[in-house]
Design goal:
Keywords: Cell wall biogenesis/degradation, Glycosyltransferase, Membrane, Transferase, Transmembrane, Transmembrane helix. Mn(2+) binds at residues 154, 178. Pfam families: Cellulose_synt. This protein is mostly helical. Helices cover 51% and strands 6% of the residues. The chain has 51 helices and 19 strands. The strands form six sheets. A four-stranded mixed β-sheet has the order 4-8-6-9. A four-stranded mixed β-sheet has the order 13-17-15-18. α10 runs parallel beside α12, α33 packs across α35 and α37 packs across α38. The relative contact order is 0.04.
Length: 1406
């Protein structure tokens, strides 16, 4: 707005893609400030026209400067205050126009679903600055968003700005600028116009690109933000047809985007009406709608182009293909400056997004290597190809980082020796490549240190971003994943900024992007050290010199990683009243709302009024309500009541809440601001105090002067009420809460177990807190209901309070693990604090335990994930703990943390001996072998010690038996699933949520628990490993008995027999649940439910209509006829479709191949669910109906199994033919005629049935073609989907078949043309089969011509030829068609790769 250019000719359009009223408010404030800022700039002729940059440069003081700075600070404070509050105060809205603008943000207005908003903030010629000069136009635009429609990320937003600006001002020149950049030179538009208006310049000059430069980059540009190599490429391209667009700082001619558009958007149209007129605003809102682009060329031939996440490069490339040219303008004073990410994770994430977008350009139908080289010129096409294929560099970089080093570790030389002439060639290539790179960098104005960081970052990108981008693109291509557009985070914490200024790399985020580079760093360091050892021990250097050099070079590059791994330390009752109260609470919970009768006074009404429509469990402000206050609230006898405070911390979906640890830290802070007691008790919501004397016992320890002053907390054991006699789920965890806590008590003290712990407050706060009110040494004397105290309490309960603090790292409960209790106590002990285990005869606290096997295993799985987070954190007990506590305590914590590792021996123990027994293989010593007794001793010794500890701690034999049984169940299910969940979370594929363990029990379930019966009533994958183990153990034991009777001895297999028998005894509850039980807690075969209620019902899909009004009468003629069988249950009319084309190319409606195949896939899953249910037609059906009816139903339900023979029929003979292998009889062989009869008989019967049903031959041909297509795609995908669903890996969703058809698609269907226009993996088997059959037929034909005989391969050639004829529509869609229904190029490419892979695999087989 402050450019040195006539303001009446300037129009600024701001796109707010999130549609936030806070952003609109910020621009309204900026518009007000601009009326003062623009005259100040003109008067003082300042260069820095961005206020933030100007005041950052410390301008010379003057009264006018001080005044304008004060206005700027006031404006910024108002905006920041509004953003912090999340809402706009009425005092900030100054006029009716603003009030009307903000009124559009209604309840249904969300960032992803909202109407278009176009608001004129300033209008030229009408709005004046303080000196009377006209202001430029300033327009806020937020395009319409609908979650059901694509929005095309940044390209879509820019296209909306193009159209809105065309309807309002329609200036011939456009500047695009990212929101985090500002203009650094007020003369920049004049520089651009010198090119665009120069008559000597080519009239096809479409845009002028300025370089992208950044401010605030540190001295050595740690993350290579300057991208000097990109600048070199742009300068080079400038010598051809011009540089590409780089997304910002680019001046375009409008006509390059709006070619021949509608009359309203004609680039040559002069807009003369007021931009605030209703007509103009209505048109602007219309073109900003999300449906405007439907059936237009926007994104393909007009505007910024869609199809890639790097819309800037793709648009610039497409414009060059259309004949436009560009110029690179690089003035001495940077035209624009912006923010670069100064965080390694953000930089790598940004590069991942670029890589996906570049690959989308590289492999689109307008690929630069093919289309570009033809449409522009060879060199420019290759330049674009160089950029688009950037991510492919990950392959050589990864090889360069790992292969030589791994070979070095194996003492394998893969490079020539130093005396070999080829050695110098490799040395020359390495030094030449790096030398050229360094020279270009230095000549472009860089320094050696910046170049070093640039090449280091290049390798980091190659190992992480490019590789992840390549994988993400491949996953997206085959439809497994869709990449979203994530805005690069450029908000920086103060400490992070300091580290960046010091040149330190920022590794503070647990991101999978850091895994490859840290792995490479470790391997390179180890291999380099190994190489040095080889030199000193064996004196061999010549053979491994190049590998040593590469490993050393990589080690030097990886120094920041080693620093981050090792050297750095920076971040951090009265029964009647009780029953009445309980009933009231249960009634409210059941209703889901609070009746006004239950709210007795105004204070409670005010408290409940905070729950508005926008208040959700995941998104709400803090709520702190004082329910009782000591000194003011009395009991019925006049005694003081204790303080009772309800707290619900603030939740925001975009802020981490750290589960239980985060909630406890809010309690710590709120209690510090209100009462600040020196001793704290933490207690879970499902536990209660069982002894009123418990606090006194604790104070005996904490206030005893003879005790260690570093005693930080007193831990009571976690004990549960309501556990059944035998404790079938081992809820007592006696080894943990009794045996091991007592053992740890003899060292530095026990760990915290999540509940029943009394803590000194100061162990969480250390020294003084960030605010005086939270100083742990201060005694709070103010009323806890006072506004001042409540305001501070709400402040510290906010989700942003912990930002840039040590909460969760060095203060409060520690974050980073789902077992926050163990993690926190472990870190406290590392800091020098001690603890004591207090174990009174009367339990201090009692709680609920899970009374359901599934909940118990789920709880253990969550613990396993948390324990693994402790194991693999930087404070690992086995390394960090043994140094900072003591050896034994460190090992004690490690014992807990490594709990999930027991899954490995337990899984081996449950499966390996039994599988060996099933294969009659002995893996243990014979009875006569002395080692036999060692094995027996180890088994009995381990179990004996475990049993003795359990009994001495007060347990019973039966409870011990259930304890060891549950240990094995946990080891087979919870621990492995915990491992999987942890690894998925670590790789960023999954994020583990904190699921509160369900302890609500149904009455019948409770009865079964009291009887000691295991509860399996949930169809959960957690039960799969134990039930599999149970089956294998039983089968192996029976096999062992059979071998004993058959061979007359068991000396070899005794131990395996004993283990299998021991497993069977342990698995008895599983066998009961599988076979013997009929209650709801049995092991489910399948979970299903049906419900219906009506005398006579007609079911009709929503896309069907009745074609005969007499139909109900016909049906009733059957249903009400007394002569009909009274068991007549339903009458079925045939399903007939209208609008099917002449030859019925898909053999059924819908009229789109993708939808047709998807529909069949859904049917296949459903049919298989019937086939393998307990009511399977092949078993239950033939008994309950009749043999023939059962087999008829089985014919339908096993439909999907046809995928197997159809797939074999489509691939095996053809692959054999490609490998010159004959798999069918010769023509002269009598068996040949049998094959011919079977083929012709099957097809002949099918053809005859079809003709007799009144259908023509052409429809039969399409019918059998559609059958083959189904067999190769729908049936196969349905079979895979069913198997995945069956084992609990995937759950199939119900997708309604789309029957909405575009006009062009409908025309193609009526012509009998197949529709392939969707890049779907469901087409891959079809296209792969088409390619293989075509190539096989040509190969067979060539062989026949060469050998003049086809006797051996006649049947294979016939099958391949038959398939080729069937696949004609596929070949048309792949090669000849140009309409929208053709086969996408990516499907063709992938199919070719798959065909080649199948051929390669078959070559080895044949």
């Amino acid at each position: 707005m402050a450019y040195d250019y006539p303001p009446e000719k300037l129009s600024v359009y701001v796109s707010d893609d999130g549609g936030s009223q806070l952003t609109l408010f910020a621009f309204i404030e900026a518009a007000r400030f601009a009326t003062h800022w623009l005259p100040y700039c003109r008067k003082n002729k300042i260069l820095e026209r961005c206020p933030e940059a100007y005041f950052r440069s410390s301008p010379s003081w003057s009264p006018e400067t001080a005044q304008i700075k004060m206005m700027y600070e006031r404006m910024r404070a108002r905006v920041e205050n509004v953003v912090k509050r999340g809402s706009i105060l009425p005092d900030y809205i100054t006029n009716e126009a603003e009030s009307e603008a903000f009124s559009r943000w209604a309840d249904g207005f969300t960032p992803r679903d909202h109407p278009a908003v176009v608001q004129v903030l300033l209008e030229a010629d009408r709005d004046k600055d303080i000196t009377g000069h006209t202001m430029p136009n300033l327009v806020y635009a937020s395009r319409e968003k609908n979650m059901n429609l694509p929005h095309h990320f940044k390209a879509g937003a820019l296209n909306v700005l193009l159209r809105v600006s065309a309807t309002m001002t329609n200036a011939p020149i456009l500047l695009t600028l990212d929101s985090d950049m500002y203009s650094n030179d007020s003369q920049t538009p004049l520089c651009a116009l010198c090119f665009l208006l120069d008559p000597c310049i080519d009239s096809k000059l479409g845009f002028v690109q300025f370089p992208q430069m950044f401010y605030g980059i540190n001295k050595n540009d740690t993350y290579g933000a300057e991208s000097r190599q990109s600048e070199i490429v742009l300068i080079g391209m400038d010598g051809l047809v011009g540089p590409t667009n780089i997304g910002t700082g680019c001046f375009f001619r409008r006509q390059v985007f709006l070619g021949g558009s509608s009359p309203q958007l004609n680039p040559d149209l002069l807009v003369s009406k007021s931009i605030k007129s209703e007509e103009v605003l209505a048109l602007a809102h219309h073109v900003a709608g999300c449906n405007y682009e439907n059936q237009t060329s926007w994104g393909s031939k007009m505007g910024f182009r869609y199809g890639s996440l790097v819309e800037d490069l793709y648009t610039g490339y497409r414009l060059h293909c259309e004949g436009w040219k560009s110029i690179f303008c690089n003035p001495k004073r940077p035209a624009f400056l912006g923010k670069a990410p100064i965080n390694l994770n953000d930089m790598l994430n940004q590069t991942v997004r670029w890589c996906v977008g570049l690959l989308e350009v590289a492999f689109c139908k307008h690929s630069p290597v093919t289309f570009g080289a033809r449409s522009i010129n060879l060199l420019t096409g290759l330049c674009y190809g160089h950029m688009a294929l950037w991510p492919i560099s990950s392959i050589p970089v990864t090889i360069y980082a790992f292969l030589p080093q791994l070979a070095l570790l194996k003492c394998v030389s893969i490079f020539p020796e130093a005396s070999d002439p080829w050695f110098f060639l490799r040395l020359f290539l390495f030094l030449g490549a790096y030398g050229q790179n360094c020279l270009e960098f230095m000549l472009s104005g860089g320094s050696i240190q910046k170049w070093w960081n640039d090449q280091r970052v290049w390798m980091m990108r190659g190992l992480s971003s490019m590789m992840f981008g390549l994988v993400e693109y491949l996953l997206k291509t085959i439809g497994i994943s869709t990449f979203g557009f994530s805005v690069t985070n450029k908000t920086v914490e103060e400490e992070q900024s300091k580290r960046y200024d010091q040149g330190l790399f920022e590794f503070g985020v647990s991101s999978p992007l850091l895994l490859p580079m840290t792995t490479a760093a470790i391997i390179n360091c180890i291999s380099f050290l190994w190489g040095i050892a080889q030199i000193f021990t064996q004196g061999r250097l010549e053979g491994i010199l190049l590998q040593m050099f590469l490993a050393g070079f990589a080690t030097v590059n990886c120094w920041p990683i080693y620093e981050a791994i090792l050297l750095r330390t920076d971040g951090g009752k009265i029964p009647s009243m009780y029953e009445r109260m309980r009933d009231r609470v249960e009634n409210v919970v059941k209703r889901g709302s609070i009746s006004n009768d239950y709210i007795p006074d105004q204070r409670e009404i005010e408290a409940f009024s905070r729950w508005t429509d926008e208040f959700t469990p995941q998104n709400h402000p803090p709520v702190i309500q004082v329910l009782l206050e000591r000194g003011k609230d009395k009991d019925i006898t006049g005694h003081d009541m204790p303080n009772l405070v309800y707290i619900s911390r603030e939740k925001r979906m975009d802020s981490p809440h750290h589960f239980k640890a985060g909630a406890l830290n809010v309690l710590l802070r709120v209690s510090a601001t209100m009462t600040n007691a020196p001793v704290i008790l933490t207690l879970d919501g499902d536990m209660y105090s069982n002894d009123p004397q418990t606090p006194l016992r604790v104070l005996c320890y904490l206030l005893d002067p003879s005790m260690d002053p570093k005693l930080g907390y007193v831990q009571f054991p976690q004990i549960f009420h309501g556990i059944n006699k035998s404790d079938i789920y081992d809820d007592e965890l006696r080894h943990v809460y009794q045996v091991q806590l007592s053992g740890m008590d003899g060292l530095a003290g026990p760990q915290h177990v999540g509940s029943g712990g009394f803590f000194r407050r100061k162990i969480f706060f250390g020294g003084s807190s960030e605010t005086p009110e939270m100083n742990q040494d201060q005694l709070t004397r103010k009323s806890i209901r006072s506004k001042e105290v409540l305001a501070i309490a709400h402040h510290v309960a906010g989700c942003n309070f912990e930002n840039q603090t040590k909460w969760g790292t060095k203060m409060g409960f520690r974050y980073g693990s789902l077992v926050e209790d163990l993690h926190t106590s472990y870190q406290l002990q590392c800091e020098g604090w001690k603890s004591i285990n207090c174990k009174p005869k009367r339990p201090a606290f009692l709680g609920n335990s899970p009374l359901n096997l599934h909940d118990s295993l789920n709880q253990t799985m969550r613990w396993s994930v948390g324990l693994l987070e402790v194991v693999f954190c930087k404070h690992n007990p086995i390394i960090y703990g043994v140094r900072f506590i003591n050896l034994l305590s460190g090992l004690g914590f490690a014992y807990y943390a490594f709990w999930p590792f027991w899954s490995v021996p337990l899984t081996i123990y449950a499966f390996l001996p039994q599988l060996a027994l099933l294969n009659s293989t002995s893996i243990f010593p014979k009875v006569s072998d002395p080692w036999f007794f060692v094995n027996v001793f180890l088994f009995l010794g381990a179990y004996g010690q475990d049993y003795l500890e359990f009994i001495l701690s007060g347990g019973t034999t039966l409870r011990w038996w259930n304890n060891q049984r549950m240990w094995m169940m946990r080891g087979l299910s919870s621990f492995p699933f915990g491992w999987i969940e942890y690894f998925l979370k670590s790789m960023g594929i999954s994020t583990f949520g904190f699921n509160v363990t369900s302890k609500v029990v149904q009455e019948e379930q409770s009865k079964r628990y009291k009887e000691g019966i295991f509860e399996f009533g949930v169809a959960s994958p957690l039960f799969l490993p134990p039930t599999t183990a149970a089956i294998i153990n039983l089968a192996s034991f029976l096999k062992g008995i059979a071998l004993v009777f058959k061979q007359g001895g068991l000396e070899d297999l005794l131990l395996q027999m004993l283990l299998a028998g021991f497993g069977i005894v342990n698995c008895w509850p599983i066998y009961e649940a599988m076979v013997l039980r009929t209650d709801e807690g049995k092991l489910p075969l399948r979970v299903s439910a049906t419900m219906t209620n009506a005398p006579v019902i007609l079911t009709l899909d929503s896309d069907m209509y009745s074609n005969d009004p007499q139909t109900p009468l016909r049906a009733l003629c059957y249903l009400l006829d007394p002569s009909m069988d009274p068991k007549l249950g339903y009458i079925q009319f045939p399903q007939v479709f209208h609008g099917i084309n002449k030859n019925d190319i898909y053999g059924k409606s819908p009229i789109n191949l993708h939808d047709f195949l998807n529909q069949t896939m859904r049917w296949s899953v459903g049919l298989l669910e019937v086939a393998f249910s307990r009511y399977s037609p092949i078993t239950f059906g033939v008994q309950s109906i009749s043999l023939l009816s059962g087999l008829c139903f089985a014919h339908y339900t096993f439909w999907a199994i046809w995928a197997i023979p159809v797939t074999i029929y489509a691939f095996l003979p053809q692959l054999a033919l490609l490998n010159s292998a004959s798999i069918f009889p010769k023509i002269s062989d009598p068996w040949f005629l049998l094959y011919v009869v079977l083929f012709l008989g099957a097809y002949g019967q099918d053809y005859l049935e079809f003709l007799l049903s009144g259908r023509p031959t052409q429809r039969w041909w399409n019918h059998q073609r559609a059958w083959i297509m189904r067999g190769l795609s729908s049936f196969t995908f349905g079979l895979v989907e069913y198997l995945l669903k069956y084992v609990g890996i995937s759950t199939f969703g119900f997708n309604v078949t789309s029957k909405v058809v575009e006009e062009e698609q409908s025309k193609r269907y009526q012509k009998g043309i197949f529709e392939f226009g969707v890049p779907s993996p469901i087409f891959l088997p079809l296209t792969t089969a088409a390619i293989i059959n075509f190539v096989a037929f040509l190969t067979g034909f060539a062989k026949a011509c060469r050998q003049r005989s086809i006797e051996d391969v006649f049947l294979q050639m016939f099958l391949a030829g038959f398939a080729v004829v069937n696949c004609c529509p596929v070949y048309e869609a792949m090669a000849w068609r140009r309409d929208q229904g053709k086969l996408p190029l990516k499907i063709t490419v992938i199919s070719v790769v798959l065909a080649w892979a199948l051929y390669s695999a078959s070559s080895m087989a044949f």
